Q: What sequence folds into this?
RNA sequence: GGCACCAUAGCCAAGUGGUAAGGCAGAGCUCUGCAAAAGCUUCACCCCCAGUCCGAGUCUGGGUGGUGCCUCCA
């Protein structure tokens, strides 16, 4: 039985989907105006792990992720420039070109990190009509009102506002850091639809003239369309708790009068050198940048899996080095199990399986699950262990099946290099170490290192 | 100022009240012409103080420190 921490109750709860055997989940996706950085990606790795655990437990998944390609203002003060518009202006491309480009990069990143895409990917600009209908419904029910620059949600009509973040709005300093829009009934009222300013680059016809949707309405409209008024899980980063998800709840529940999401599950932030990631500090690394520095994307995934999703994770290159070594050793340890014909004790296998399953079902305790894997790998060599590790990998997504044999690896190495290595092996057997060392240098010149093993040698890329 | 979370070895990091998972680094050993790799062994009493309890890293209270949010942000 899966237990999961619900932000709504601030406690671990037993997970029970609305429909037996099926889980409907909405995950906040990216605003595609820039490259995703490792902090963003940590959250998607968390989402992926969650989805994999659900699958592992036998649930059928219906997941939706949005791609925000419009209507995300730079500021929550309901003015300020739309992110897409800004990127568009700066890069001299149409917003659609911007969105298309960064969406593609985003998907490439996901795939490099073994993050499975949710079943449904929903682009905001494909759903403007749904959003307009949603806004109309809010207006009809009296939960929204129109002022000069747009349609606003009236949080005064929704007394439960703040229940997710447990913020007391009255205690917040109204307007302290946000300029008060004098026409708004409450400073925290937020735009569900904005009327287009002159020359605004993205705009659509609506009952209120040309305009564009608010950010929050996007997720509400699309989740409702694909998952219904009430669904099981909503994921995102912790930063979304106070504003974005609070607003979604307000919109959804005002409209339907029902609790819209049963489990709100949030991934914690990633820190860099114990501090916040920000572009101004220049520490928002991308997958491509990690690759340039010699870290395979899956090393980063492994790094993330080493920490619990609800704990802040401190990113350092020292930590990445550790993850790299660790991950590579894990794979090479698995070689040996893969080739061994010996059987393992069934009880032992089952005991490890149970330990692993218990860990992942305890609020996705992947760090502990990794510990189980390491203990397993250190047992006597056996193909049963390899097979069990592959089972674990359905959840971990670390491509553990890529563990290669020395024999298999040779196939990828140029024949001439193998020939030199063979010559060297002979020289070594005849104790002609001078020749042996010369040949090793030749191999190195070809870009490979030769490592002696018990009964021969192994070639690796230098 | 308000809210929340966190504080475990050099580093990353698990931990359900009963005497500290795992990884990296380090140290020692084995193997070894050299080098590397690999294998084995080793390495913490859990920020401070006061409580509750037979027993606390694990609960309560108080400190101290850190981080995040309260502007867009995963």
A:
């Amino acid at each position: 039985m899966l237990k999961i921490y619900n932000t709504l109750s601030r406690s671990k709860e037993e997970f029970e989907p609305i429909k037996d055997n099926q889980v409907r989940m909405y995950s906040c996706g990216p605003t595609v105006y820039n490259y995703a950085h490792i902090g963003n990606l940590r959250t998607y790795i968390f989402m992926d792990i969650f989805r994999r655990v659900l699958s592992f437990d036998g649930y059928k998944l219906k997941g939706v992720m949005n791609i925000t390609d419009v209507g995300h203002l730079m500021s929550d003060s309901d003015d300020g420039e739309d992110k897409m518009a800004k990127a568009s202006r700066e890069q001299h491309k149409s917003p659609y070109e911007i969105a298309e480009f960064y969406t593609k990069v985003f998907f490439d990143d996901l795939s490099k990190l073994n993050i499975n895409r949710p079943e449904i990917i929903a682009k905001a600009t494909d759903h403007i009509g749904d959003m307009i209908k949603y806004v109309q419904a809010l207006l009809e029910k009296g939960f929204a009102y129109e002022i000069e620059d747009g349609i606003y949600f009236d949080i005064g009509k929704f007394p439960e506002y703040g229940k997710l973040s447990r913020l007391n709005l009255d205690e917040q300093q109204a307007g302290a850091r946000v300029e008060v829009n004098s026409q708004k009934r409450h400073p925290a009222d937020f735009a569900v639809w904005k009327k287009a300013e002159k020359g605004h680059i993205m705009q659509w016809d609506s009952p209120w003239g040309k305009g564009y949707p608010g950010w929050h309405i996007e997720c509400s409209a699309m989740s409702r369309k694909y998952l219904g008024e009430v669904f099981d899980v909503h994921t995102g980063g912790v930063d979304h708790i106070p504003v974005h998800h609070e607003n979604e709840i307000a919109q959804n529940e005002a409209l339907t009068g029902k609790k819209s999401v049963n489990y709100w599950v949030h991934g914690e932030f990633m820190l860099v050198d114990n501090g916040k990631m920000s572009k101004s500090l220049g520490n928002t690394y991308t997958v491509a940048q990690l690759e340039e520095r010699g870290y395979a994307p899956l090393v980063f995934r492994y790094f993330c899996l080493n920490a619990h999703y609800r704990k802040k994770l401190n990113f350092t290159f020292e930590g990445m080095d550790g993850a790299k070594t660790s991950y590579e050793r894990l794979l090479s340890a698995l070689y040996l199990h893969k080739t061994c014909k010996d059987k393992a004790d069934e009880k032992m296998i089952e005991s490890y399986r149970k330990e692993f399953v218990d860990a992942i079902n305890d609020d996705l305790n992947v760090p502990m699950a990794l510990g189980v894997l390491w203990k397993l790998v250190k047992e006597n060599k056996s193909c049963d262990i390899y097979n069990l590790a592959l089972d674990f990998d359905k959840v971990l997504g670390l491509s553990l099946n890529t563990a290669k044999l020395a024999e298999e690896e040779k196939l990828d190495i140029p024949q001439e290099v193998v020939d030199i290595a063979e010559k060297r092996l002979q020289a070594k057997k005849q104790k002609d170490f001078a020749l042996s060392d010369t040949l090793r240098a030749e191999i190195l010149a070809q870009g490979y290192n030769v490592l002696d093993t018990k009964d021969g040698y192994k070639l690796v890329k230098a």
Summary: The radius of gyration of chain A is 27 Å. Confidence is low (pLDDT under 50) at residues 74-78, 173-179 of chain A. The CA atoms of residues 35 and 102 of chain A lie 6 Å apart.
